[in-house]
């Protein structure tokens, strides 16, 4: 079975001591140029860091007035680009944690973008021909990035058509995790942004806002087993579709919650890796007091366990936690 369609979802059945563990598809993409992996993104103009973004006034929050936040909109400004007749890489806003790219010529062949950051992790995304610029995050922090556009020759053979080296100094470490990209795709008009604003209206404290969004997602989105069994490697989450349908796979859970939290100015990582032996997606949220909440699954109003909305939506936190343990069963491969 395709390893990218495997994911563990735990369904808890309260029938004596019965706990049913069901393995279903997950549909997360791969990141190997020799695989049919996919990914892309967006870009934007320089914006204040999350600590500089102003929240609505206390009076507005107290009256629970829904105020749509100002979204950090990605932009390919053309100030710094590498291009030829086939492709364009725009890194004008690299300090904001993203680049943008597009392929110019019509083709039925696959086109991929490779990003190798200072940590040595290679990210492989798909560029969708016939579209405008797509956004790709610079997830590895400050340092030198190697970026290349590759076009399929035959099968798993690709030829480089464009490359560049860029030196990145982020405006702050959270820049890549506050903005839309191909995996976490939203804008000012997204219903997910409106829903996040509704859920957090009147809530001032960080934990209250995160908890409101978290509990909404895990109680209103169900696991889509049919999609998990049929999903292709080029699948990308559509946060508004997920919200409207009320169902999704682990990639969808993570993307929707990431979009909603980022729209509220809360740095959020969409993480892809392994939960046990299963390919999986979850999130990590930044809290000013505690830093990145990496190894937590459930928020009970006072304490966090593991921020994994798929597992949290699948059953009681105590039974799920027995499977997950203390988070050591999680292996991070990629961060978006």
Structure description:
This protein is of the alpha+beta class and 336 residues long. It has two domains: 178 residues, C8orf32 fold (Roll), CATH 3.10.620; 114 residues, Immunoglobulin-like, CATH 2.60.40.10. It is 21% helix and 30% strand. It is built from eight helices and 16 strands. It has a four-stranded antiparallel beta sheet with strand order 3-4-5-8, with no helix packed on it. It has a four-stranded antiparallel beta sheet with strand order 7-6-9-10, with no helix packed on it. A hairpin with a 2-residue loop joins β1 and β2. α2 packs across α6, α3 packs antiparallel against α6 and α5 packs across α6. The longest helix is centred in the middle third of the chain and has 15 residues. It is globular. It starts with 6 loop residues before the first strand and ends with a strand.
Q: So what's the overall shape?
A: globular
In total, how many domains does the architecture comprise?
Answer: 2
Secondary-structure element sequence? Answer: EEHEEEEEEEEHHEHHEHEEEHHE
Low-confidence stretches: 1-32, 34-62, 316-325
- Main β-sheet: number of strands, strand sense, barrel status? 4 strands, antiparallel
Assembly type of the shown chains?
single chain
Intertermini distance: 26 Å
- By secondary-structure content and strand pairing, the structural class works out as alpha+beta
**Helix share, percent:** 10-25%
Q: In CATH's first tier, which class of the largest domain applies?
A: Alpha Beta
Number of strands: 16
CATH A-level architecture of the largest domain:
Roll
CATH topology of the largest domain: C8orf32 fold
Average predicted confidence as pLDDT:
78
Strand percentage lies at 25-35%
Q: Tell me the strand order in the biggest sheet.
A: 3-4-5-8
| Helix count from the secondary structure assignment | 8
Report the C-alpha radius of gyration, rounded.
20 Å
């Amino acid at each position: 079975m395709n390893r990218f369609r495997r994911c563990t979802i735990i369904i808890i059945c309260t029938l004596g001591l019965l706990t049913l563990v069901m393995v279903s598809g997950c549909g997360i993409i791969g990141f190997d140029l020799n695989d049919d992996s996919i990914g892309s993104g967006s870009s934007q103009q320089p914006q204040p860091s999350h600590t500089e973004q102003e929240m609505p006034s206390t009076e507005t929050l107290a009256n629970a007035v829904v105020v749509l936040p100002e979204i950090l909109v990605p932009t390919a400004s053309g100030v710094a680009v590498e291009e030829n007749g086939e492709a364009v890489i725009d890194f004008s806003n690299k300090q904001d944690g993203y680049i943008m790219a597009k392929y110019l010529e019509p083709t039925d062949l696959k086109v991929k973008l490779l990003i190798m950051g200072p940590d040595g992790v290679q990210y492989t995304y798909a560029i969708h021909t016939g579209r405008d610029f797509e956004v790709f995050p610079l997830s590895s922090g400050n340092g030198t990035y190697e970026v290349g556009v590759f076009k399929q020759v035959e099968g798993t053979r690709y030829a480089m058509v464009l490359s560049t080296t860029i030196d990145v100094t982020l405006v702050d470490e959270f820049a890549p995790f506050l903005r839309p990209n191909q995996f976490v795709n939203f804008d000012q008009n997204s219903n997910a942004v409106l829903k996040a604003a509704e859920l957090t209206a009147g809530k001032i404290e960080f934990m209250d806002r995160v908890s409101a969004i978290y509990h909404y997602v895990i109680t209103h989105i169900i696991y889509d087993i049919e999609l998990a069994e049929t999903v292709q490697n080029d699948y990308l989450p559509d946060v508004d579709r997920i919200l409207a349908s009320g169902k999704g796979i682990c990639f969808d859970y993570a993307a929707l919650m990431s979009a909603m939290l980022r729209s509220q100015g809360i740095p959020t990582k969409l993480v892809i890796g392994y939960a046990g032996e299963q390919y999986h997606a979850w999130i990590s949220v930044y809290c000013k007091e505690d830093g990145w909440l990496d190894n937590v699954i459930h928020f009970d109003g006072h304490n966090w366990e593991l921020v994994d909305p798929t597992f949290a939506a699948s059953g009681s936190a105590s039974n799920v936690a027995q499977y997950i343990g203390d988070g050591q069963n999680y292996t991070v491969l990629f961060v978006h």
